[in-house]
Specification:
Elements lengths: L4 H21 L11 H15 L11 H19 L2 E5 L10 E5 L11 H11 L4 H19 L20 H21 L11 H12 L3 H5 L4 H19 L2 E3 L11 E5 L4 E3 L1 H8 L5 H9 L2
Antiparallel strand pairs: 1-2, 3-4, 4-5
Amino acid sequence: MAATGPLGGWHEQLFFVLMVLEDMELRDTGFPFDYSRESLAELEKHLVGALGDAGQLSLTRHRALVEGTVAYLGEALMRVAGGAWAWSETPVEGFPGGAPIVTADPALGLEPVTPVLLLRRAFEVRDAARFTEAHDRLLGAVEEKKRADPSWRPAKEPTDADQPDPDSAPLARWLADRAAAFGDWTAAYSPDGNWDFSPDSLTRLQELVRRETPTKEELKDPANRVFRDGAAWYLGEVLRRNVGGRWNLNPDLGGDDQPYLEALGPARHKSLPVVALRISLRRDGYLRQHLDDLTR
């Protein structure tokens, strides 16, 4: 059963906060983004250097870095000890309404880990070893369990952070359906437009999205799903055809998940077209600028 409430909201934004962490907060740092033990030490060092002190964790301007670090740290720990995200109602820095926590595989019998508290501890000790200490503690418990039961392996809850399959049948069907419906889409929404997949056509796409779904609520409305899917596919195809990359989708998560693009441009960025469309509602020239940013 899909999570609801604050935990459900956290699940829904996992992909986005990790994408922002990788493509904006850690851009041009050489960060490996492979959920390895070594990457945790690098991330902790970057966090402490970027923010300076624990008091910065609750500031709005650092929200993307804090949420992305919490998500990355939690996902890295679950790749060691399995388990799932859960929710604590206790407010902490940066999470006044409660915070996401990580529960290891139940067979380990471990207490949950609250990633944001590890962030605070990182500022207190400042040795860039708090994240790896948590990693090693979980790894020790896993190895002890395996010695007792060599066939046992920790089980991790599937999330948007897991590696999906770019060759999946659901993705192939979605792409084929969008391509087949493109003629009807243009006839219905902009029959006089020049939809040639050029960079300049993104300006027309942004104008069309603002006209058809001027608010994020209207863009998200199921009644506008046909328009939204067609616009998202067109945007993704313009990006893919002009800077390279490929479509991907995690078919195991269900719900209203949308395909995204990865390995875009020389820096191999990711882009979630539905999110870019949403941002374009409030930022003039955003879609063309988004393409230009991917070329660098």
